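For the sake of transparency, this paper describes our internal protein records without simplification. Because each token names a local backbone shape, the row as a whole describes the fold. One such record is reproduced below, unchanged from the form in which we store it.
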Amino acid sequence: MFRTVSLVGLLILLFTAFSEGQNVSDAEFQKLNTELSQYYKSRDFEKALVAADRIVAIVKERYGKDHPATAVVLRNRGYVEIEKGDVKRAEKTFEEAIDIFKKQKVISKEEGATLAELLEEVGRIRTKEDLYGSEGIFKEALAWREKSNGPDAVETATPLVFLANIGYWKREYKKSAVLYGRALNAIKKSRGFSKEDVDFVYYRAQCTYRKAEIEDDFDKLEKSWPKTPHADVAEKPVTPQRGLVKGGVVNGKALYLERPKFPAEAGLAGVSGRVTIQVLINENGDVISACAVAGFHPSLIEAAEFAAYKSKFSPTKLSGVPVKVSGVITYNFVR
């Protein structure tokens, strides 16, 4: 989510200034850049990684291991490593590039934006293992986005969404709502995000504002969306009031319904009961929004929402066309 991968080769003009009398010609360097791009696009990541490694070696030799140009080509190699499935190596590559930028006495806005991008990639990787432990790196990424791109720039959406999500699962709903609100304002300015991304942020924001008991603020945010989308405005998500198919109770329609574990916190509190989750199921049958509308204890609600996100449904079609469906899942927690 929220990633636009672009392989940016080092400009040949920069390389030319250092090429005289060296072992590697401009032509070979340009050839490696072309090969890297071609192999990446054709998803031949083994060969792409060979080219990326060679480019990194050349740039380190020309500019030094602590030059921003080295950080740029390391970033490119990191993307190849991610696509190849070597996530741990990619994390180390991104961290090496981050360290290079942090050693610079002066960082341009463009370099600051690249540093933010690198921090976001490391944050994504760490989130999968330790959601809360990634909070610091996303805060740092947001600071660089605000400094390099501007506080209201579209580019701030990525760290804002991750920070809002962390706040949500920490039950810091008011703080999370503010972050989701900022992200939604940024996202709606551009068609550069996928419809799935826009839907995810919209419905998660709606749920968070509800839990923070500031639904009126979300209504204002929602009404500020342009009624007639144009080229640079994201399409507004459909809602139950605006064309979204209603599916009622959908427990029995699941291909796979995740069974939530009884939370230890609820056990210690001596509570049990039913939790009702409002879900939005996309065209593929995946749950893209899960928000409790009834439930007693926070830990039961959290466990139910988490389980709902892991559930899978048969796609719903109208006139042969897959559509999104709004429905509810009920979970009964018994000690």
Remarks:
- Confidence is low (pLDDT under 50) at residues 4-22.
